[in-house]
Amino acid sequence: MAAHYDHGHTPAAWTGVIISFLGFCAAGGFIVAAEPVAFWVSMGVVLLGPLVGGIMRTMGLGRKSDPHLLTGQDRAALREEAQEKEQAAAHAGA
């Protein structure tokens, strides 16, 4: 399945990825420095990223519904609805 053109381009997605990325970078540094406790704390930060992103998405900072992102079936239904409205308007004006 192909991603929509704006897949992940939201404040929630960017924040979650940045948090996870920073945790991953810190974990890499701590594993080289042989600091196991700090490594595992950093891995916890990695897991915090999706949690924060999910919370932000529920707060409305995720992808908004956009008519350009509709599936083919949704577009067909909207076209059909528009045609019905046009027909009703034509009958009312006749």
UniProtKB/TrEMBL annotation:
* NCBIfam families, A to Z: HGxxPAAW
Q: Look up and give the organism this protein is from.
A: Actinacidiphila epipremni
Name the chain's protein.
DUF983 domain-containing protein
Specify whether Membrane is a keyword of the entry: yes
> Transmembrane stretches, by residue range?
12-31, 37-56
UniProt KW keywords = Membrane, Transmembrane, Transmembrane helix
